[in-house]
Specification:
Blueprint: H1 2-8, H2 17-31, E1 39-45, E2 53-62, E3 76-81, E4 93-96, E5 99-107, E6 115-120, E7 123-128, E8 134-146, E9 162-167
Length: 175
Amino acid sequence: MPYNYFLSGSPTFFKSNKENWIDDFTQLFDDSFTNASDVFVIQEETLFASGAYADVTVRVNTAINNETGRKLGDDFKILLFQSSHADVSVGQLFQFDNSYWLIVNANSLKSLAVSAMARRCNNRIRWSDTNGITYSVPCIIDYSIATPDNKNRTDPLIGEGTIKVFAQLNDTTRT
């Protein structure tokens, strides 16, 4: 008898098992922000390349290299966002621990939890344009020096090799 009432119920009252599982996971994940030890309030760039920052609550975790299974050190962090947070994009800047952090990998497509790998900007790149205006933006200078390869180069060539520099691609860095 109860099964007949279940079948006659409106579909708006009942969810599929998948929808229930997603809702339960989302609720559990969001609840973990209230008592986890790795929850911090950091600053997120509000609009891409705007330079304006707003507070956001995230979980900051250790990053692991997928190829070796080893920790990547304190210059790499995984940021986990609550379900209500909008997507994170590669190149977005965050501020915490007196440093700028550049998103180098984002995971939000078809994902239950929005996460991103951030890398600490360990330097600033400075240059002057043709009008004499000087610019300075946070950047990442890679630790390793690669072997020079003159084919299809767009990065600077130095005597000992190539040093990779990463910065947010925006109107300022395009100059």
